[in-house]
Write a structure and sequence with these properties.
Radius of gyration of chain B: 34 Å
Strand content of chain C: 5-15%
Number of domains of chain C: 2
Chains: A mainly alpha (577), B alpha+beta (681), C mainly alpha (195)
Strand order of the largest sheet of chain B: 10-22-21-20-11-18-19
Strand order of the largest sheet of chain C: 5-7-6
Number of strands of chain B: 22
Largest sheet of chain B: 7 strands, mixed
Number of helices of chain B: 22
Oligomer: heterotrimer
Order of helices and strands of chain C: HHEEEEHHEHHHEEH
Number of helices of chain C: 8
Structural class of chain B: alpha+beta
Shape of chain C: extended
Largest interface: A-C, 142 and 110 residues
Distance between the termini of chain C: 73 Å
Radius of gyration of chain C: 22 Å
Largest sheet of chain C: 3 strands, antiparallel
Helix content of chain C: 40-55%
Distance between the termini of chain B: 63 Å
Chain lengths: 577, 681, 195
């Protein structure tokens, strides 16, 4: 019967319709991100002043002179102090939520390891959820604790990018801007206005926004259904825009209340990527050479398109084990929602792992092996395919430093980027960051196996279990926050080590890149000549992509072979676990 | 000019290979290995593999035969890397020996009383202090570097420069420095010692080419750091792998992990890195220039602006006749003949060039000249020279105003226009008069050296801007600059102006190179990022520069730039090659390690290798052999042709990136077939 | 130290007020004015009682109703709180199955559900667990495949029932999304026409 249906008027959208969706999404993304990037460049250069009074109102009590320039080390130290303070407050709020107001469902305080993990997770912009939102956290915790950190952790990342761009643009100066000013501007001019717009649009499309905790319904079959509610829209808006990803509900943006329609799905998808993409354009403007920003945009964009294509192809092909049991037309629907289908889920899976967002609209654990591999690999590459707000760009710049170094040697000149000589100090700092993903993913995951904690946490046997473990530690180190959710991470061991991985993956990148920015800011700028190879051409873009892929592949190919690749060959051979 | 290029040593001369092989073994000393982190790590891995092989041998483990071979090949890898370094050092040493042979004197004649050449005492060279006055007499070898205080002598500097013609050294001026190791051919000199014992030019050259004191250059340090970082990444990959393998229900023999580790870490570039550096210095020596440090050579590859003196570099030292411009009513041939006749006995370069031009244009031959002619030499007073012929004809040539004054008439307006045209184009007009009638003028001009324009074109393609430095007025300078094809010029240059120009270029972030010889060049040489001092120049200039050109050839800078670039390119290209190799090694080794756990992973074995053991062995053998295969490239340097950076990058990426990706697939497969044939695994 | 600690603490406090309290409250206030129905959870009231949310699926087991997708939500086992039992469409604890593609349990579950639907390949969404466990929709194919069963249970003309289903198919808007049928809306319409 279904097969006869396929020929009726209600044909499920085929490949062409899916491609149209993908192309439209990408086109809309660029159309919004490019002007936003220009706007942000003006914001961080201090050209815009319409919130100047609010800016002063925030900075004056803090004792900050808005234009007081900071040395990179002061800048970094300010950021660390601010995030440390945020961590302490959030930890205490989570531990003591039973004593705090706005706890209509009477949730208990979180145990220490879970509070640690969650606090680290939100401060580092990871938003790994060891907890189930609607079953663990009070409205107070969600709003005051998490929503605040959603804003300020994102703004911290944006500040880093602004400071780095400033450092590259300046000549022979000792400072890279003022962290407090950048922080305040990121929130006032960018995150807050965009969040309000997106939140209201989402409410209009059906996302709840209420202080009620739940509603009770009597179903058509007479059962009681408790429907969890809350101030969902306001949190969803900032979790997407700030590449935080921590959902109000356990299943995140797969929940019909977080993401009720295909249009809300589109808006949220755009919100995930728009600021990271815009930062390419912001960067180009701030360093005074828009081609440089465009080159990074093209490099990241090509990788994103490849990821979307690969995940879509894998999910569309479906699960070979189920061939014959299900109609293959719809693809792999386990863990997906009907309103998004394969194409909406693939677009999202690619975007959320590219942009270090971590919200999901389909269960990544149930992705096909190759679809899951692509998602995991995007994280393991260091979250540089647009990446987290601000930090994605700066992470990419670390790869640029390495690529420029190799390329510079190959043209017989001390390597230069934007006229700045890349020397031992910069290479040392960039090479140091190459160690972060292997330590956080391979080191910590191996430790979990060695101590036996991995074996008890995974849901699935065989290679897929290894994928769950690797995905968890990749997600934490990459500050992504999505999960192969079958992995039972809510144990003291994993909460602790995942927390450490998040800290490593956040500040292990931020501090070196700020140091590089400081070091480059102090250097002279050599004017370009025919002897400097252009860092805005197709050749450089290709080389940059190749460097990223080769570093990532060489680091993770062995474990990917034992995880998703082994699972794929097993499935093809008809094995289950 | 007779010149010998410094000892050219065949790439694989047996005289070097033999000792190098011995030296490779001697370099197994851990203290020596520790200088190179990647190779040191390889040696540690080799030791571990050896211990494992012995243990398996005693306990009869299953992998003992392959394990022994792996251990052996790991040691071979280390030895090959040592060998590459030893070969490069051996070449340097051979060159150093030829320098050392020139230092024949062990004692110097130190004057007891300044001013009295009769009273001196013999003193050992190693006790000679700077500031002491020494006497050098004909036949003596100059014992150390110094500055001439008194006397004039001709000095044979061939031991250092290869230039066989003796040069004059005298006190004062720009020819006052003497170099240890050269020999006085005539007369005597009193010289003030300027170098401490063991720090003479010759000592420094020897140390440099031997690589003994070779300090790592900035880019080399940065590359070392990157390689160390990659090594750590792969250490993490390999150390954690047993846990993931255990998860997958398989165990990997430790010796295989060691093999995987060594094939992944950048042994190729790690093993060749110091050889590349030493060979780069060696190549510089071959151009007959000496760098005071490796840093200077690297900086030469980076320069953006090249300051070149006009005279001697861009133009020949002297002005030369370029055309005959007759007065109205006179024939060019007539003018040429008069000019020719008046110059036949003129030995100045200008006079010779007039004879040459006349001969070339109008085929006057010396044997056609009238025999009885008396030559009137140039004097500052008359500003003319000429000839009085036997038939009474009086010919004069010289400054236009002086010659026209001779005629007693106002100059012809047409001729006047020609004179102005010549002057404005940067040339010098020489009027020629016969019997009181001005026949016309000869256009003397600065002649740009042939081929120089093309060289500047090359530099431009490399992104280097050339600036001509000249004492000429701006008009003349502009004309010559246009003809020579330089990008810019500094006219009416003074040492201060030169220094200011360098500073302003540097303020804009550019790296500046210049060459000079005089004492007044010293500040500019010191200020420039790359300063090439002429070996014939003053001690001050030589002290200020960071490179010394033994040929005194100002265009040498161009070659030095190329050597500097080639050095960096060799490092970059082999690094890329080394890293790209890893992809194939994964495809060889990983299926071999994992196929027991998941038979389906055999599909990753794209090379279809004989057996898991053979795959691992082949990868490790390839890894060792590739070092040896690349030694020639490391020593000769990667081929370099001036081109834009973008063109160079795509070319080198194609060869070393793509080549590095593909080559090991082929190499490992071939070795695997051989391993299968020989039943080694 | 003071120079850094003071702005850190002061700005954290100010942003907590601004973004943690003022922002969500402002959005809540605006939402209550602009779109109260959606802000409150798009609840559906029939005859004075809330029967569910238009956006949240609910469990249908009766032959008289169209069924939604398999739901993996669970609830604590009343007998042993450390364990969980299946509690489909628990809208207070969303969850997916998280079964990996190579899981034997996945293949068994799909095979079991497909067998229940009868011979031939089943519509994929009707035999696989949704991501949220609360998916309100099924594909048109999944709705149509249930027409004979529901028609039989309600003694309706299958053709009329099919027409009802087709009337409830929501097509993609502006190229975005997949065609879908809201199961609760369909069943409400079904109850309305055939109480």
């Amino acid at each position: 019967m279904p097969s006869t249906f396929a020929s009726s008027a209600l044909v499920p959208p085929g490949l062409a319709a899916d491609l149209i969706q993908i192309v439209l999404c990408l086109a809309l993304l660029v159309a919004i991100a490019a002007p936003l990037g220009v706007y942000m460049a003006k914001v961080f250069s201090g050209e815009l002043t319409f919130f100047a009074r609010a800016e002063r109102a925030l900075l004056a009590p803090a004792g900050v002179r808005p234009k007081a320039e900071q040395h990179w080390s002061t800048y970094a130290f300010s950021l660390l102090a601010f995030n440390a303070a945020g961590f302490v407050v959030l930890y205490l709020v989570l531990r003591a939520q039973n004593l705090l107001p706005l706890n209509p469902r009477g949730f208990a305080g979180l145990p220490p390891h879970l509070a640690f993990d969650t606090a680290v997770s939100f401060v580092t912009n990871t938003n790994w959820q060891s907890y189930g939102g609607e079953t663990t956290l009070s409205n107070f915790s969600q709003m005051v604790g998490l929503t605040t950190q959603n804003f300020v952790s994102a703004a911290s990342g944006m500040a880093v990018a602004a400071a780095v761009a400033r450092g590259l643009a300046s000549r022979q100066v000792r400072s890279i801007g003022n962290f407090w000013t950048d922080l305040v501007r990121a929130i006032l001019y960018v995150l807050l206005p965009l969040s309000i717009v997106v939140a209201l649009a989402l409410v209009w499309l059906g996302v709840p926004q209420t202080l009620d905790a739940s509603a009770t319904a009597t179903t058509l079959e007479g059962a009681k259904q408790t429907i969890a509610l809350g101030p969902v829209a306001s949190q969803v808006a900032i979790k997407q825009l700030g590449t935080n990803g921590g959902g109000f509900f356990n299943v995140n943006s797969a929940h019909p209340f977080e993401n009720p329609t295909a249009i809300s799905n589109l808006i949220e998808w755009l919100a995930i990527l728009v600021i990271p993409v815009a930062f390419c354009f912001t960067y180009g403007r701030m360093v005074g050479d828009r081609r440089q920003g465009r080159a990074l945009f093209v490099a990241m964009g090509l990788m994103l398109v490849a990821s979307i294509g690969a995940i879509y192809a894998a999910e569309h092909a479906g699960n070979p084990l189920l061939a014959g049991l299900v109609d293959p037309a719809a693809g792999n629907m386990e863990g997906k929602e009907v309103r998004f289908g394969v194409v909406g889920s693939a677009l999202w899976a690619a975007a959320t792992t590219a942009a270090s967002n971590g919200s999901v609209n389909a269960m990544h654990d149930s992705l096909t092996p190759l679809g899951g591999l692509v998602a995991m690999l995007q994280i393991q590459l260091g979250e540089v395919v647009f990446g987290g707000v601000g930090v994605g760009l700066t992470g990419m710049l670390l790869f640029v430093v390495l690529t420029v170094f190799l390329a510079g040697l190959m043209v017989g000149r001390t390597p230069e980027y934007l006229g700045k000589k890349i020397e031992a100090r910069e290479v040392k700092l960039a090479a140091l960051t190459l160690l972060i993903m292997p330590i956080g993913v391979l080191g910590f995951a191996a430790l979990a196996i060695a101590t036996g904690h991995a074996q008890t946490a995974v849901q699935d046997a065989g290679p897929h279990g290894l994928s769950e473990l690797l995905y968890a530690y990749s997600s934490a180190t990459g500050n992504n926050g999505s999960a192969f959710a079958g992995f039972g991470a809510a144990t003291p061991w994993h909460d602790t080590w995942l927390g450490l991985a998040m800290l490593l993956g956040r500040f292990g990148y931020i501090v070196p890149i700020l140091a590089i920015a400081g070091s480059l800011a102090a250097k002279k700028t050599t004017p370009a000549s025919a002897g400097t190879f252009p860092t805005h051409g197709a050749l450089f873009v290709g080389l940059l992509i190749a460097t990223i892929l080769i570093v990532g592949a060489l680091t993770f190919f062995p474990v990917l072979a034992l995880g998703p690749i082994a699972e794929q060959v097993s499935i093809l051979a008809g094995h289950t676990f | 000019m007779s010149k010998h290029s410094p000892v050219d040593i065949a790439l694989f001369a047996p005289s070097i290979l033999g000792p190098a092989a011995l030296e490779a073994v001697r370099k197994l000393d851990p203290r020596s290995l520790a200088r190179n982190p990647v190779i040191f790590t390889t040696a540690v891995a080799a030791t571990l593999a050896t211990v494992l092989a012995i243990r398996d041998g005693l306990s009869g483990g299953p992998t003992v035969w392959v394990g022994c071979q792996i251990a052996a090949w790991l040691w071979v890898t280390v030895l090959f890397a040592n060998f590459a370094e030893a070969v490069a050092e051996g070449r340097g040493k051979a060159r150093a020996d030829s320098f050392r042979a020139t230092r024949r004197t062990a004692r110097a004649k130190v004057l007891i009383l300044p001013g009295n050449r009769e009273l001196w005492e013999g003193k050992d060279l190693d006790r000679l202090e700077p500031g002491e006055l020494i006497l050098i007499e004909a036949g003596d070898t100059v014992p150390t570097d110094g500055e001439v205080i008194e006397g004039i002598a001709s000095v044979d500097e061939s031991a250092i420069t290869g230039e066989s013609a003796p040069v004059i050294r005298e006190s004062g001026g720009d020819r006052s420095s003497v170099t240890g190791g050269t020999r006085l051919v005539s007369d005597w000199l009193v010289v003030k010692v300027t170098a401490k014992p063991g720090e003479t030019f010759l000592d420094r050259m020897i140390a440099l080419v031997e690589g003994a004191k070779r300090q790592k250059t900035p880019n080399e340090i940065a590359l070392d750091i990157l390689l160390a970082g990659l090594t750590l990444v792969f250490l993490l990959v390999v150390v954690t792998l047993p846990f993931f393998a255990a998860w997958s229900g398989t165990t990997i023999p430790t010796v295989y992990l060691v093999a995987l580790f060594v094939t992944l870490i950048p042994t190729t570039i790690g093993g060749l890195l110091s050889a590349i550096g030493i060979a780069g210095m060696d190549r510089l020596m071959k151009t007959n220039a000496v760098a005071k440090s490796g840093r200077a050579v690297e900086a030469a590859g980076d320069i953006d602006v090249l300051l070149l003196d006009k005279t001697g570099t861009i133009t020949f030292g002297n002005r030369m006749a370029d055309e005959f411009v007759p007065s109205p009513g006179f024939d060019e041939r007539d003018l040429a003949e008069a000019a020719w006749l008046s110059s036949l006995a003129d030995d100045t370069p200008e006079g010779k060039s007039i004879v040459e031009l006349a001969a070339r244009r109008h085929e006057f031959r010396r044997d056609q000249a009238p025999s009885a002619a008396s030559f009137v030499p140039f004097t500052a007073h008359t500003r003319m020279s000429g000839a009085d012929l036997a038939d009474g004809t009086v010919i004069r040539k010289g400054a236009v105003d002086a010659v026209t004054a001779l005629t007693g008439r106002a100059p012809d307006p047409a001729l006047d226009a020609a004179v102005r045209r010549i002057a404005s184009s940067g040339g010098t007009p020489i009027a020629v008069a016969r019997n009181g009638t001005v026949l016309g003028v000869v256009h003397l001009k600065d002649v740009v050296k042939p081929g120089i324009r093309a060289r500047f074109g090359e530099l431009r393609r490399m992104g280097i801007r050339t600036v001509m430095i000249t004492g000429d007025n701006p008009l003349t300078a502009a004309a010559i600059a246009a003809e020579a094809g330089v990008d810019d010029f500094l006219a009416e240059a003074t040492p201060e102006k030169k220094l200011a120009l360098i500073r302003s270029e540097q303020a804009e972030g550019r790296l500046v190179a210049m060459c000079g010889d005089g004492s007044n060049d010293a500040p500019a040489l010191a200020q420039a990022d790359v300063g090439v001092a002429m070996n014939s120049g003053t001690a001050a200039a030589k002290e200020a520069g960071n490179l010394i050109d033994l040929d005194n050839d100002p265009t040498k800078l161009i070659e030095i730039v190329m050597v500097g670039k080639q050095l960096l390119i060799s490092r970059g290209a082999l690094t890329t090659f080394s890293i790209a190799n890893d992809v194939a090694k994964y495809f060889a080794i990983l299926p071999a390690l994992f196929v027991a756990a998941y038979p389906g992973l055999a599909m990753l074995d794209v090379m279809r290798l004989g057996s898991p053991q053979s795959a691992i062995l082949s990868a490790i053998v390839f890894n060792a052999l590739v070092i040896v295969a690349l030694i020639p490239i490391a020593l000769k340097g990667v081929h370099y042709r001036p081109a834009s950076a973008a063109a160079l990058l795509s070319r080198n990426l194609l060869i070393y990136g793509l080549g590095g990706l593909v080559a090991p697939f082929v190499g490992i497969k071939l070795i695997d077939m051989l391993v299968g044939l020989l039943h080694l695994a | 130290m003071h120079k850094i600690l003071r702005p850190a603490l002061v700005l954290l406090a100010l942003f907590t007020v601004l973004t943690g309290i003022a922002y969500p409250l402002a959005v809540t206030g605006l939402a209550a004015v602009l779109a109260p129905q959606q802000a409150g959870g798009s609840l559906i009231v029939r005859n004075g009682t809330v029967v569910g949310s238009a956006l949240i699926g609910q469990s249908f087991a009766s032959e008289r109703y169209f069924h939604g997708r398999p739901s993996a939500t669970t609830a604590p086992d009343p007998a042993d709180p450390s364990k969980t039992i299946a509690a489909p469409y628990d809208a207070s604890a969303s969850a997916g199955s998280n079964l990996g593609p190579s899981a034997a349990a996945l293949k068994e579950a799909v095979a079991r559900r497909a067998a229940a639907l009868g011979p031939g390949p089943a519509p994929a969404d009707l035999v696989t667990a949704s991501a949220s466990g609360l998916d309100p929709d099924v594909s048109p194919a999944a709705a149509l495949v249930q027409v004979p069963r529901v028609a039989a249970a309600r003694r309706l003309d299958p053709a009329r029932l099919r027409a009802l289903v087709e009337a409830h198919v929501e097509e993609p808007r502006f190229f975005f999304g997949e065609p879908r049928v809201n199961v609760l809306a369909l069943n409400l319409a079904l109850d309305a026409t055939n109480p």
